[in-house]
Design goal:
heterodimer; A: alpha+beta; 13-stranded mixed β-sheet; 13 strands; B: mainly alpha; elongated
């Protein structure tokens, strides 16, 4: 019987080809999702990302009203960029109404960003904000509860600035003129002179040294010892030698005496050397005491606010308040630059601590090469940025035209530096003839950034220069003009100069003392134009050394000279007299004591040294005589012997 | 994540089956290139596209990419050196200059020393490794899988109704 055939009823799986056809729909879905995201969400997300990046980088709120991108055309349009002024959050540092640019698809296909032309329009400066902008709190450098290093440095600099310059000169002059200056209270100060303390400790040291040298002088060879040596030397036989043994014995004796004398000379020489060292040391201390006395006098002059009629000091003192905000702004941008500066550049003059920090693994970067060729594209290149703005409804807009060319990642490839020029005026703000030109040249290994700018005319109103309890001084009204030049070499060496001129100046002067006010009004009426020249130089990221000059300095100095010169001299004389009274006698006594020790010990050492030298010379002469006599005795003996021999021989 | 897990399960299922050794070896070889290339580069996107549109085992590719990423990370200093050597070669300079200014090609980031070095290593290894993987899969199936299928546990499990239902379901609806 045949078994019935069993048939496999399960369907045979369909053979699948090499192409995954079932993946087409998911792929299309993913593409649609990406397209939908780009159309509906990308612009918003990019806008928020730019706002966040701006806030992190600048440290103040950045708002963007609208951002539009077109993937097809390769264009971006950003409207209503407001950057908050970190120092004054109710104002914007600047506002840019519209930025438009398009990237070349030709470049994008080559993984390069090339922008043929960019337009920046409707620029406003210092316009008020509808709501105050958020300002980033200062970062703590370390996880400690105390202030950061930056804050500490800022506080230190502020203190130094306040102590040195802030509002002191005119206030001090006022106090001196009114006779309320504190130098009359000199007698109330007790025991505050450092030089006095130094003198006391020096006096103790001198006494100690005197005792020490008295002891030391006792250990030096005395007169008797030297006489003893002399006697022993005289007793040594130096003639009538009968045998060579006698000569030898005499020479040995002289030699041992001379050696002894030598030893004593060495002791005296060592004492002489030590004395020289001690005297040098004491001399140095005397000099440092003198220096301290001078410093004490200067400190007291500062403490009792005796003004210096030095033109440069006066200029600095008056204009530091005016320059303060600009210096603060410069330091703010400098710190921002330092934050993003390459670590190698930061550490050139700094500590090695940063070198020990974890460095990124090579995977993170490697070396990216650019294979340039003429007419090729660098990785990033904005060929031309046109900046334009028309004065409009707002006072803060202006007629401004500018051009920035060749913003690129590789200047050497395109052979052009990055340049930026701006010219225009802001009639609403009464600012005219604004011109700025910046050139950033990275074509050589050491980059050079130069900046030249000028403002032909700007209105100054209510600018305070000096504000002390006794005097306030400011520009009630003036027309200013400013020119500035700056250069940064190799991102390190920074030099800059600024020439500021204020014309048609109306001063705002108040003073407690009428006498002073009268003098000040008289002086300032004769100064219708004020110049302010500031020069700075330094190695970034360290602070700059500033040099401030103004015609106000010499003019004020000259104006006050007659009234003040005598009073200043009197005040200085008082301070000096006080210091002399406090320490003069003590200093003279110590100096006398010091001179006495010096002469006494020096004379003693010299005397002993001279005696020993005489004895030594005597000994040397005796040695020579003994040798001569010995030689003469020996030759006579040989002659006698020869004669005897000749007599015995008969030819 | 589900998609990734599904692909990984599919990889182990295929590895323990009798078919698809080419798919697996190609997947593993593709993973070598993915591992040695930066994710956002032309070559990585091209390989992913190939894996997606051709029947290359995605699970194998992801697993190999994950493993070779670590290897690439360890040999980065060597890749950097190799890359610099190639990119600084005077003889190849005109070629690189042309490639650098061609459309699309610069998106491979070949001008970076590490990308060039590790890319070279990946592309040199991919063909030999394809055959190595293929032979290893065959050996694995001949030794490990066969031996495992001889064990009592496997025999007991494969004799259960549940397993038969699963195999029937997998044959009808399962896919690689």
């Amino acid at each position: 019987m045949n078994k019935p055939e069993t048939r496999d009823v399960t369907p045979k799986p369909k053979r699948k080809g090499p192409v995954r056809t079932e993946a087409v729909i998911p792929f299309l879905v993913v593409c649609c999702l990406i397209a939908a995201y780009t159309i509906f969400f990308f612009d918003g997300h990019l806008r928020r990302a730019l706002e966040w990046v701006g806030y992190q980088a600048i440290g103040a709120e950045v708002d963007i009203a609208n951002l539009e991108t077109s993937f097809r055309k390769g264009t971006i349009r950003i409207q209503g960029i407001q950057v908050t002024n970190a120092q004054k959050p109710t104002e914007n540092a600047f506002v840019i109404g519209d930025i438009r640019f398009g990237v070349l698809w030709d470049g994008l296909l080559r993984a390069k960003i090339v922008v043929e032309e960019m337009a920046i329009e409707q620029i406003e400066i210092s316009s008020p904000r509808k709501t105050p902008g958020k300002v980033k709190p200062p970062e703590k450098e370390e996880n400690t509860d105390g202030p950061s290093k930056l804050e500490q440095e800022a506080t230190r600099l502020k203190g130094e600035f306040d102590d040195k310059y802030q509002d002191n000169v005119l206030g001090d002059i006022s106090a001196l003129l009114s006779g309320t200056s504190g130098q009359d209270q000199l007698k109330n100060i007790e025991g505050t002179l450092k030089s006095k303390e130094m003198l006391s400790s020096f006096e103790k040291e001198i006494k100690g040294k005197q005792d020490e040298w008295n002891q030391r002088l006792k250990t030096l060879p005395n007169n008797e010892e030297v006489q003893q040596l002399s006697k022993r030397l005289s007793a040594v036989k130096t003639k009538d030698f009968k045998t060579p043994q006698e000569v030898e014995a005499s020479l040995k004796q002289i030699d041992s005496i001379l050696k002894e004398a030598d030893q004593k000379v060495k002791t005296v020489q060592a004492a002489g050397n030590d004395l020289e060292k001690d005297l040098k040391n004491l001399d140095g201390q005397m000099k440092s005491i003198d220096a301290q006395i001078k410093k004490d006098i200067a400190d007291l002059e500062a403490r009792f606010k005796i003004p210096k009629l030095n033109a440069s000091e006066i200029s600095k003192s008056i204009f530091m308040r005016y320059l303060g905000p600009y210096i603060a702004k410069f330091n703010q941008y400098k710190n921002m630059a330092v934050k993003y500066m390459p670590p190698g550049l930061k550490n050139k003059n700094g500590s090695d601590a940063a070198k020990d920090q974890i460095q990124p693994h090579p995977r993170a970067d490697g070396v990216t090469y650019e294979f340039g060729k003429p007419r090729g594209y660098p990785m990033f290149w904005i060929k031309d940025i046109k900046v334009s703005s028309k004065a409009g409804a707002s006072d803060f807009t202006g007629d401004l035209k500018g051009q920035i060319t060749h913003v690129t990642s590789n200047q050497a490839l395109i052979g052009q530096p990055t340049t930026a020029t701006f010219a225009g005026s802001f009639p609403g703000l009464k600012v005219s003839d604004v011109f700025a030109k910046a050139v950033m040249d990275n074509r050589k290994p050491e980059s050079v950034i130069t900046l030249e700018s000028k403002v032909g005319s700007y209105a100054v109103a209510g600018r305070e220069l000096v504000n002390s309890p006794d005097v306030t001084l400011g520009f009630a009204q003036a027309t200013g003009s400013v020119g500035m030049k700056a250069e940064l070499k190799a991102l390190k060496e920074f030099t800059f100069s600024m020439d500021n001129k204020f014309n048609q100046v109306a001063y705002d002067i108040t003073a407690k003392s009428n006498e002073l006010k009268q003098v000040l009004v008289e002086i300032f009426n004769g100064i219708p134009a004020v110049t302010l020249d500031v020069n700075g130089r330094g190695q970034l990221p360290a602070n700059l050394a500033l040099n401030v000059n103004s015609n106000l300095g010499p003019e004020i100095g000259k104006g006050f000279e007659k009234q003040l010169q005598k009073k200043i001299a009197e005040a200085k004389a008082k301070v000096e007299a006080y210091v002399q009274e406090q320490i003069g006698a003590q200093r003279a006594q110590i100096e006398a004591q010091y001179k006495q020790i010096k002469s006494q010990v020096e004379a003693e050492v010299k005397k002993v040294q001279a005696q020993l030298d005489t004895e030594k010379a005597k000994g040397d002469a005796q040695v020579k005589t003994a040798e001569k006599n010995a030689k003469a005795g020996a030759s006579k003996k040989i002659e006698d012997e020869a004669k005897k021999l000749l007599k015995g021989i008969k030819f | 994540m589900t998609l990734l897990l599904k692909q990984l399960f599919a990889f182990f299922k295929l590895l323990n089956s009798d078919t698809g050794s080419n798919q697996l070896a190609a997947g593993l070889a593709a993973g070598v290139i993915l591992g040695f290339s930066p994710i956002l580069s032309l070559q990585a996107l091209f390989i992913l596209f190939c894996c997606f549109f051709f029947r290359i085992q995605l699970g194998a590719a992801f697993l190999a990419a994950f493993f070779f990423k670590f290897i690439a990370f360890l040999v980065d200093p060597l890749s950097d050196q190799l890359g610099r050597m190639v990119l600084e070669n005077e003889g190849l300079r005109p070629l690189f200059t042309n490639l650098y200014h061609m459309p699309i090609v610069p998106m491979s980031r070949f001008n970076n020393s590490i990308v060039m070095g590790s890319g070279l290593v990946g592309f040199i290894l991919v063909i030999p490794l394809f055959f190595v993987f293929k032979s290893l899969i065959a050996k694995y199936r001949a030794t490990v899988v066969t031996r495992y299928k001889q064990t009592k546990i496997w025999k007991a499990w494969s004799g259960t109704t549940l397993y038969k239902w699963y195999t029937t379901y997998d044959r009808l609806y399962g896919s690689n």
